Amino acid sequence: MVAMRRRAGVLAAICFTILCPGMAANAAAQDAPVPLQPYPVNHELRVDSDADVRFLHDGPAGSHGFIEVRDGHLYRPDGKRFRCWGVNITGFSLGSAEIPPNAEARETAAALARLGINCVRMHFLDMPVSRTPKEGSGKGPDPTPHKDSPSGLIADGPTSRVLDPAALARFDYWFAELKKNGIYVNFNLNVGRTYRSGDGVPDADLIGSAKAYTYFGPELIALQKEYAKQLLGHLNPYTKLRYADDPAVVTVEVVNENSLLEFWMRNWLRGERVKGGRNLQLDMTPHYQALLVKMYNDWLAKNRTPAEVAELQRIAGVAAGQPVPFMRRGDHPDAPRLRLDAELGFLTQVEIDFHADMKRFLTQEIGVKSPIVPMADHTYFIANQPLMRTAMKSDIMDAHVYWQHPAIYGKRGEPMVNSPELSIIQKLARSAVAGKPLTVSEVNHPWPSGDYGAEMIPILASYAAFQDWDGIFFYTYEPKLHGKWTPLVTGEFDIALDPAKIAQLPAGALIFLRGDVSPAKEVVTRSYSTDQISETSRMPRAEMPYYTPGFDKRIPLVHGSRVSCLDCKPSLPAPLPPANPIVSDTGELSWKTSDGEDGIISVNAPRSQALVGFVSANPKMQTRNLSVDIRNDFAAITLSSLDGKPLNLSDRMLLTTTGKVENTGQSWNARHAMLSNWGTAPTLIEPITGWIQLKDLEGAIGVSAQALDGSARPIGPAIRGKMIEPGWEIAVGAPATTTYLIRIER
After folding, report:
1. Which residues pair with 119 in a beta bridge?
2. What is the radius of gyration, based on Cα positions, of the chain?
3. Cα(41)–Cα(712) distance, rounded to whole angstroms?
4. What confidence tens digit (pLDDT) does each residue in 120-147 have?
């Protein structure tokens, strides 16, 4: 449709050239693409600004006591709801560090607070102090190791059992700076640790980060406990508290993207990983497979009758007295339920027992007082109901999702706003459970998503507030090292230098943290029987993400959506009637498409409003206080009150106008799946160009807009608004910017 509109504009310009040359020039100028302009983000130069939203924080993190789980949500001890608006902290790109030096720690903590970030998830702390970028992510244009910028806590040497004293000292200061700036910390314990010859771990050279092995390998379980005690039992000299005793620790996660059931459903229990072998994906070594098979057969002897064990041996084709092996994934669809249920029941019990033991260890032996998160629902192309049996026994439900992840997607760079029934909202909503908080500890529109990446934050913030979730952590933010970074996006996941995403973080904080978008009026639930859960485990990928035939995927866009129970009487909400746009039951959110194209979302709440998507193709789409007339095909435009008043009465507002982002000189490969050239500095933006109309401003006698640069500093003179019949009109696009501070005179 975009191409068709542009071709139509060219034809119109040709006609006008023949009939009226002057009109032709104007038409061509209107239709021509808006040229990209440099717009670097520089957090070193970031200054305090009236556009900051750190006022959303309420003092040093933890000043009210430990965050608690109560009535299905997170609360402060004084009874006030608590939400996380956060980022993961990593350090894989050149010029970045997860544990920055002290000067950068002070700078980054203050910058995050100004952007509205009140939580960070410390990811990959269990990595070496000297490391290279993670395989499959964050490589960008230059994957050079940055050995002079320690990012993990594990000391170099023959064992992974020692924390590096210098790295730990830097981390202590970093934590204290975050706490001082009102930013809570999530500790993510088992993430990417690899094991060394001195650890006494079988097959240490073959198992990589030991996903799934960590659930049952006795040596690995012991080492996880040892690491947790070293870290959470450590006394921070700046705060004078052990991390286990510090209320600035919002949650503790046990494992990251790690599930034994996932290995089973993805055919990774083959036991064929050997030196010199094919080593398919994350398959197990023979040692660990044999250990797991023995555990399984011991479990069968206790939990199945001799007749059932004999039948399982017959089905598996093994002689009496021989161990029953696991199936391969290809056997799942036709397997008798006796075999399917036995394997599913055993592996589920291993996960439940592991997490129960880890929670006991963390709370009783280390003294952790923060809520414990066992695992995340992170693989939406397999059924999550079996995994939820483990997760639902925990304090908090957690989920991960990416729009067109580079590791598992083909053609990329497509707008999510055109796909309401496939969006990240649907994929996340499947994990929400009645009576439990839901956090999203990883989410992103990974780079290169520059054409449409600006849509992510306003859409997610709005629908997460509507669904009444409890936390969002974008993956990822990489603190920059002085003199070692350049102003361009250097990895698929790092948002720190993305002009659109950085601009939208404060707007998203206002929508989500402040609760500008109202929760759904009605929450509908679904439940699953034991038989249904067994059958979901072998459903084809075509049933993703819900693996629930008959469930209307639009429901999370209209009502609150939760799972009420597992292994109980099954229930399913009724399908919704046809609708376009899809409107939330609060009336504040609307999602419209035209045959899967020209999608647009409007947010129409008293204190925050937005238009996100193909705005020019939907000229009649507007909100109570916001309408636009712009040259750009695609834009994410948000308007939020900064003084807490409704927009029609507000004296100070934040206006973000974001769209296409690129590195200078970048280019796509032939399939449009990844960049063939990542480009160079600086980042470029397509300025949103035209007119923004602010309507129904009570008593306004003057309106001005101050453009801000990528460090929140004023650029150019204030733009005076023009009074028009509906309200006031502001010309935008020059100077090039993503952010305006709006002031209203009354």
Report:
1. 86, 184
2. 27
3. 9
4. 999 999 999 976 544 334 445 444 444 4
CA dist 249 and 251 (Å) reads 6
pLDDT in tens, 183-227: 999 999 999 999 999 999 999 999 999 999 999 999 999 999 999
Output the six-digit token pair for 464: 């997460």
> Which pLDDT band holds residue 24 (cuts at 50, 70, 90)?
very low
Least Cα distance to 744 among 651, 644, 656 occurs for 651
| CB of 480 closer than 8 Å to CB of 496 | yes
* pLDDT for position 413: 85
pTM: 0.94
- CB-based contact 380:388 (threshold 8 Å): no
Separation CA 727–CA 709 (nearest Å): 27
Cβ neighbours around 502 below 10 Å, total: 23
Q: Is the pLDDT at 536 greater than 50, yes or no?
A: yes
DSSP 374-401: ---B--TTS--HHHHHHHTTSS-EEEEE
CA–CA gap between residue 436 and residue 519 (Å, rounded): 16
Is residue 356 predicted with pLDDT exceeding 90? Answer: yes
Give the separation between CA 73 and CA 433, rounded to whole angstroms.
11
Q: Max Cα separation, the chain?
A: 93
φ, ψ dihedrals at 595, nearest 5°: 55, 45
Averaged pLDDT score across all residues of the chain: 93
**Amino acid at residue number 570:** P
CA distance 296 to 288: 12
Strand order in the sheet with 37-38: 37-38, 680-685, 661-664
Q: Is 627 helix (H, G, I), strand (E, B) or coil?
A: strand
Question: How many CA atoms, within 13 angstroms, populate the side-chain half-sphere of residue 39?
Answer: 34
Distance CA 62, CA 373 (A): 18
Question: 525: which strand partners?
Answer: 562
Neighbours of 442 (CB within 10 A): 23
| 479 Cβ contact partners less than 8 Å away, ≥ 6 residues apart | 89, 91, 96, 97, 98, 100, 104, 105, 108, 496
Peptide bond into 448 cis (omega under 30): yes
DSSP string, 55-72: GGS-SSTTTT---EEETT
